[in-house]
Each structure stands twice: as structure tokens, then as C-alpha cells.
Specification:
Layout lengths: L3 E2 L11 E4 L10 H18 L4 E7 L7 H22 L3 E6 L21 H11 L8 H10 L7 E6 H10 L2 H12 L1
Helix pairs in contact: 3-4, 3-6, 4-6
């Protein structure tokens, strides 16, 4: 659904709740304002609780044309601040999306956003699921992987850690990525 998440997790105690869609008008020259919007949204999500807000999709359109800034300094600061908070209180997880997302490669040093795998790892998923390497090139697999992290605007997705853990435990990662790559290429 585009308004609620948590579907299919009721048996694990995860309620279906609203997705919040905040917006940041921060410019590329004002990362502190972006982080203010992110942390204000997170604070509101945590305060309202899991029955009211399940996740956040915060759009930051000023960053749409600058993937190096979004994937470099911005993501490094976000990931570091979330990791610091998570040591004290494990409540949230963060994944980022971008209109120009590129799959990380082993040489770039860019780890990807929120568990996105390298081209080699994605290729291993596809090979295990079906012998798609006969029809899909590394470039096809990279494109299919990248499309899974592309959105119309630079976006920060904040998830509740317990919901993320339950969802991760229920999915077969290799099958999910292989299916998505097949659909998106």
C-alpha cells in the first residue's frame, strides 16, 4: 500500500500503520537543515508509536541531481548518526534512495544504501535462482539492482528496527533480488 506498511506481519506483533511522507526544503548547501528534518521526523515517528506511524519516506528534492553528495557525505553522516543512536536505543533503520542510484562495485568503496549488494553478489543470487547469466549481462544485473534504489526524488526511508527484523526474517534475499532484477531489466 502507498499509505500503510506492516502488511503480513500481524502474527509477529507488527501492526499495520501509516507511512509518513515529510518533505525537506534543505538545499545542498544546508545539510544541517536536512538532518534537522530527518531527526524531527524520526522523533515524531518514535513518539507516536508503531500503531500510528510505521515508517518514513522523506523527500529531499534539492539533492536529486547530486548523487555523489547524497551517496558520499550525506549518507556517511546519516549512517554514523543512526549507528550512534542505535547503540543507545535500537529503534530505527535507514535506507536511502536516489534518482541516479548506481550499484556499488568492489572498487568504488561506496557500500550502497541499506544492504544493497555489489554486482558480484547480485549476480550470484541470479545464478542460484535460474541460469539467467545466459541472458543477463553484468550491466543488466547492475541496472536491475540500481532500479531497486531509484525514486523520483532523493529519499530517506526510516523503518522501525523490529519491523525490519521481522520482514528480513521472512524473505529469501536471493530470490527477492533475483526476481526484482528480472522484472526491472
Amino acid at each position: 500500500s502507498d499509505t500503510k506498511s506492516g502488511h503480513g506481519l500481524a502474527e509477529f506483533g507488527v501492526p499495520v500503520a501509516n507511512i509518513a511522507y515529510p518533505f525537506s526544503n534543505a538545499s545542498k548547501n544546508n545539510l544541517p537543515l536536512l538532518f534537522y528534518h530527518v531527526w524531527l521526523s524520526i522523533f515524531q515517528m518514535v513518539r507516536l508509536g508503531p500503531t500510528k506511524v510505521s515508517s518514513i519516506l522523506l523527500a529531499a528534492p534539492a539533492f536529486d541531481d547530486d548523487f555523489p553528495l547524497w551517496s558520499g557525505p550525506m549518507f556517511a553522516m546519516l549512517e554514523t548518526s543512526v549507528a550512534a543512536i542505535m547503540e543507545a536505543q535500537a529503534e530505527i533503520g535507514v535506507v536511502c534512495f536516489h534518482p541516479h542510484y548506481k550499484i556499488p562495485n568492489e572498487q568504488s568503496g561506496f557500500p550502497g544504501f541499506g544492504q544493497m549488494h555489489s554486482i558480484t553478489k547480485l549476480q550470484s543470487f541470479v545464478v542460484v535462482v535460474d541460469d539467467a547469466t545466459k541472458t543477463l549481462t553484468r550491466n543488466d544485473i547492475a541496472a536491475g539492482g540500481a532500479w531497486q534504489r531509484r525514486t523520483p526524488h532523493a529519499t530517506i526511508n526510516v523503518l522501525r528496527a523490529d519491523q525490519l527484523q521481522q520482514a528480513e526474517g521472512r524473505r529469501n534475499t536471493g530470490l527477492l533480488y533475483a526476481r526484482n532484477i528480472r522484472v526491472l531489466t
